[in-house]
Amino acid sequence: MAKPVSEGKTQVKQNEAKWSPELMRAGWTAVPSVILEYQHKLGLDALDVNILLQLATFWWHKENLPRPAKATIAKRMDVDPSTVRRRIAKLEKAGLIKRIARRTDTGQRPNEYDFTGLIEQAKPYALQKQRDREERKRQDATRQRKGFKVISGGKAEA
């Protein structure tokens, strides 16, 4: 469900307060936290996550998949393009991304990258995180009914 426009603007303002208006105006990328928090369980290392983040900076609309050149990603990360090529192949073999070749009459264009596999593989972790959050809320409410005061950090005191 999409957030109301005013709620989205509020979030941008909060991010500006954290990161500064200058950094936010230069551009930002939305990535679900669960991908970072569960990267190990998803079989990702730091280089894989960096590549996914680089790809995500080119993805602003669901129907318009990112399509940066591997050389662009490599230059941003200061690694050899063959490293990016190998890692993207690994991510594809793991079912996390799908490369979609783009060809024209004049030759090959940069691939498009579909994140459907990553999204589907991350969903169980996201759902578990939501269940855990709801369970904590339920436990906090139970503590409050029993006369405990719930303080920051989820700890209760009498």
What is the topological layout?
Layout: H1 5-19, H2 21-25, H3 33-37, H4 46-56, H5 70-77, H6 81-93, E1 98-104, E2 107-114, H7 116-145, E3 149-150, E4 156-157
Antiparallel strand pairs: 1-2, 3-4
Structure description:
This protein is α+β, with helices and mostly antiparallel strands and 158 residues long. It has a domain at 29-129: Arc Repressor Mutant, subunit A (Orthogonal Bundle), CATH 1.10.10. It is built from seven helices and four strands, in the order ααααααββαββ. It has helices spanning 5-19, 21-25, 33-37, 46-56, 70-77, 81-93, 116-145, and strands at residues 98-104, 107-114, 149-150, 156-157. A two-stranded antiparallel ribbon has the order 1-2. It has a two-stranded antiparallel ribbon with strand order 3-4. Strand 1 and strand 2 (107-114) form a beta hairpin. Helix 5 packs across helix 6. The longest helix has 30 residues, at 116-145.
First CA to last CA: what distance?
39 Å
Query: What overall geometry do the principal axes of the alpha carbons give?
Result: elongated
Trace the largest sheet across and list its strands.
1-2
CATH class assignment of the domain at 29-129? Mainly Alpha
Main beta-sheet annotation: 2 strands, antiparallel
Q: How many alpha or pi helices?
A: 7
Coarse structural class:
alpha+beta
CATH architecture tag of the domain at 29-129: Orthogonal Bundle
What pattern of helices and strands is seen along the backbone?
HHHHHHEEHEE
